[in-house]
Amino acid sequence: MSLSLFDLTGRVALITGSSQGIGYALAGGLGRAGARVILNGRDASKLAQAVDSLSAEGLNVTGSVFDVTDPDAIEAAVARIEQEVGPVDILINNAGKQHRAPAEEFPDEAWRDIFRTNVDSAFFAARSVGRRMIERRRGKIINIGSVQSELGRPTIVPYTATKGAVKMMTRGLAAEWAKHNIQVNAIGPGYFDTPLNAALVNNPEFSAWLCGRTPAGRWGKLEELIGAAIFLSSSASDFVNGHMLMVDGGLTASV
Ligand code: NDP
């Protein structure tokens, strides 16, 4: 297999929620593989800082501030990106949020907000970009799922439900759009040190549980997600569709 199969030179990639954490790591990874990357977030100054630091590495990146829970804002942003940068070849639906509380006390608005951010947003963005990919007869969509679609864990019931929805939305879109030469896949990260996990990272009891439960015996490193994203963004995955690639040190493979 030629390594050029993984080359993303000239491809335009839009990564939602990429001003920090996993999205930011993937933006750097795809940028280093040659892609022109559009980073996104709601906080304009945080996004500008992220763009500046990747630009300083010589990567071809720009920022687009919009809220992924607003379908009109997504549509406007995609139209603007396509006009100013070029057709979006790769969409990574990464923006997501977490709220921890016992199920019996879980606030209504937090439940709705998690679904809007983790599920609605991914569908709205896939719909906006997918419509254009159908016309061009090619495209790659990657949804960031989670090991939580495979595990039941306390205090995160809504989050777990959203990641189950993301997994099945991935399969449904793949089945529907395969005929248009669009591949829709997902990545299922294990546990990574990002602001989303701030409460867990400094909790020694949790860390001990995680490292004991994970065959690799440790947390993931953000750069370890990049290979999966490049594979699923590139021609190397042209016959891979509806799959969720777990990057979790074996966590979901073990009992
Ligand atoms: P972070 O909380 O560190 O980063 C979230 C990013 O999303 C930020 O850039 C934030 O920017 C952006 N964002 C949040 N809401 C919106 C919105 N409504 N519109 C636009 N941007 C938004 O999260 P992680 O990097 O940890 O997680 C990224 C994805 O990976 C999520 O889908 C998460 O569920 C998933 N995941 C994470 C794991 C982990 O271990 N960290 C494990 C498994 C899955 P801003 O503040 O400007 O809105």
UniProtKB/TrEMBL annotation:
First-level EC class: oxidoreductase
Gene3D superfamilies per the UniProt record, alphabetical: NAD(P)-binding Rossmann-like Domain
Enzyme Commission code: 1.1.1.69
One Pfam family from the record: adh_short
Membrane-crossing segments per the record: none
Domain (Ketoreductase) ranges: 11-150
UniProt xrefs under CDD domains: Ga5DH-like_SDR_c
GO molecular function, one term: gluconate 5-dehydrogenase activity
Keywords annotated in UniProt: Oxidoreductase
Family: Belongs to the short-chain dehydrogenases/reductases (SDR) family.
Designated name of the protein: Gluconate 5-dehydrogenase
Species assigned in the record: Alsobacter soli
